[in-house]
Design a protein that fits this description.
The longest helix has 22 residues. By secondary structure, the protein is of the alpha/beta class. It has 11 helices and 10 strands.
Length: about 325
Amino acid sequence: MAGSPIFLVGLFYWSHLKRRRGSRNLLAVAAGLAALGWAALVLAALGPAVCAAQNAPTRVVIDETDRKINVPAEVRRIVSIAPSVTETIYALGAEARLVGDTDYCDDPPEAKTKPHVGALLNPSFEAILALKPDLVISSAINRPETVLALERLGVPVYATDPRSVEGTVDSIEGLGELIGAERAGKMLAAQLRARLDNLHRRLAGRPPKRVLFVVWEDPLISVGPNTFLADALRQAGAESVVETTQDWPKLSLEEAVRLQPEALVFASAGAGTKSDDYDGLRERPGWGALEAVKQGRIAVVSDALDRPAPRMIDAIEQLARQLHPEAFGAQEGKR
């Protein structure tokens, strides 16, 4: 009923990174050294020929974190260590070149049949190397230490890091160019931008709904204004009632009641989940004091809203239809 497990893993990891910004926390240093030590052991065991394209022609690219990396001129074997990347590779029609992904890569369902290299924060370097990738693609949900360790092993890692909805579309187009699916990337990006433009036309002139996006219920966690989720809300004709400099703020129910959002927004992994499934909130201490709960103004969308990949646009459209049904036809507003 709360946020998706994948999103929460990334949420709490990046919250940890922010808390230690400006000084090297001993635990962070230890984690980095452990990762590098493990990388050294794997490298010693497997030898230098760990990548299929190690001696192939390369080109220099700059990834989305401004890192300059050498990638094969022709990318044939890809390992994805982020669900958003896996989803995008399938959407680009390049799944035949995806030789491995993580335990959490679940969309499309076929992605679950690929060889897995472990979890998001601690993938198995040995499993990655055994797949002989030309390229590993990561996202902001992965640990920087993982990227560094793979680089030490001689594996090129391209990091994606979209910070907005438009940035997500740009990232999708960029991945198409990176892996040799440029035409598919441009076509997909154009389709996604056209859908967003259509949504903007429908919502033009309508005041945004004041909403509370519930990432987690206990403790109550929402989103700050500088996250890609907050931008997704804006694209759907909504704005968060939470004003903070934090990306993932905790707030009390008393504060939520004081803010009195017009609607609550949940992202659910359950394909059939509807707002009626959240009626039990009325009976829970504190929640019943929210007018949005009393009136049943609860929007439930796909947890694709948590994932910077093509299906994010689906979730934005779902949310817009629920918050602004008058902007859509009678049948469209019910989707």
